[in-house]
Each structure stands twice: as structure tokens, then as C-alpha cells.
Design goal:
By secondary structure, this protein is of the alpha/beta class. 42% of the residues lie in helices and 20% in strands. The protein has 6 helices and 5 strands; from the N terminus they run βαββαβαβααα. Helix 1 crosses helix 6. The radius of gyration is 17 Å and the shape is elongated. The protein binds flavin mononucleotide.
């Protein structure tokens, strides 16, 4: 098997990116499975997808990454926060640290994903402190922007990410 796409997705955002990455991979020697389905199928290059949970990935992704040896590994993920380069970098660093040293790390693609509507309620009540109020409004704008993600542009960038990864190989 050339390529294996394995993803963890609670509400479907990361699955959407996984599907795009899978379809962008050339040839027939490829497969895609959710983390729950995955039973150790081997491949030369792994694309591992995660949703951001409290600033990092969930434990199933940590377990999966830790057990990969001698593989080429690319990461992709979705998170509630929109395009903030520093935040995306911090997530990348917290997740790629789990890739064993005998693997070749090929990079990370991250984009925003919509969050459940209940989350919006946390940001709907005005705050007295001006700084907190600015933060609240920012979070509200971010939430509403997230409702449209992953969008066509995110999918296009995911396809470009695949191209970049393949060039590295
Ligand atoms: C318990 C929980 C914790 C989350 N923590 C973060 C976080 O720390 N940072 C962030 O940007 N998004 C966070 N999110 C938002 C998700 O990462 C985001 O909605 C993601 O796109 C979900 O992907 P999925 O649809 O594949 O499950 C959190 C969501 C949940 C449910």
C-alpha cells in the first residue's frame, strides 16, 4: 500500500478534509479509515487526521502516531480557531512531537472547522470588563466564521498540501 489516510473526527470536519486528501492521492494503492476502523493496515506514507481537543489532538491519535515506525508521516487537522499562524504552529508542535524519531515527518495542514451551536452560548452574554468584552466579540466572530468551514478554499489548500507532501517524497 502506498498511502493510508487515518482520521479522528467527532463532528465530521476532519473527515471532510480526510476525504479530500484521499481523493487527491494518486493511483489505486491507497485506503482511508477512521481511527475506530483502523486495525494496523500498513503503508509507506501515512496521512493522519485529528480534531483539536484543548490545544492538541485526542489520545487515539497520540497512540496511533506513537506506534508508527520507519514511515513517512503527514498530519492534518481542523480546529475551532480560524487562521492564526501562531496558534496553528503551536498545535502542529504539540502533535508532531508524538511522531517517533525513526519516521520522516512531512508537514501539517490545519484549517478551521465549525463548532457545535452550544459553544456559541458561551460567548453570547456581554462582559463588563472591556478587555474580556473585546475577547468575547472576537470569539463570537470566530465562531460565526467557523460555520462556513471547512469550505472550498480549505479543500483546495488540502489538495495543495498533498501536492507539497508528494514532492517531498
Ligand atoms: C471538547 C472539545 C475541545 C475543543 N478544543 C479546541 C481547542 O482547544 N482549540 C480549538 O481551536 N478548537 C477546539 N475545539 C473545536 C474542534 O477542534 C473543531 O470543531 C473541529 O473542527 C472538530 O473536528 P471534527 O468535526 O472532525 O470532530 C474543541 C471541540 C471540542 C468538542
Amino acid at each position: 500500500m502506498d498511502y493510508m489516510v487515518v482520521y479522528s473526527s467527532k463532528t465530521g470536519n476532519t473527515k471532510k478534509i480526510a476525504t479530500e486528501i484521499f481523493s487527491a492521492l494518486p493511483g489505486m494503492s491507497k485506503d482511508m479509515q477512521s481511527m475506530e476502523e483502523y486495525r494496523g493496515k500498513d503503508a509507506e506514507i501515512f496521512f493522519i487526521g485529528f480534531w483539536v481537543n484543548r490545544g492538541t489532538c485526542d489520545i487515539s491519535v497520540i497512540d496511533m502516531l506513537s506506534e508508527l515506525h520507519g514511515k513517512k508521516v503527514a498530519l492534518f487537522g481542523t480546529c475551532g480557531m480560524g487562521r492564526e499562524a501562531a496558534y496553528f504552529r503551536s498545535i502542529e508542535q504539540k502533535v508532531n512531537v508524538w511522531i517517533p524519531d525513526d519516521c520522516e515527518y512531512l508537514g501539517t495542514f490545519l484549517c478551521q472547522g465549525k463548532m457545535p451551536m452550544q459553544v456559541r452560548e458561551n460567548y453570547e452574554i456581554p462582559m463588563e470588563d472591556p478587555e474580556r468584552e473585546l475577547w468575547r466579540k472576537k470569539m463570537l466572530r470566530n465562531f460565526d466564521e467557523g460555520l462556513f468551514h471547512p469550505n472550498e478554499e480549505d479543500l483546495r489548500q488540502a489538495r495543495m498540501f498533498v501536492e507539497q507532501v508528494l514532492k517531498k517524497c
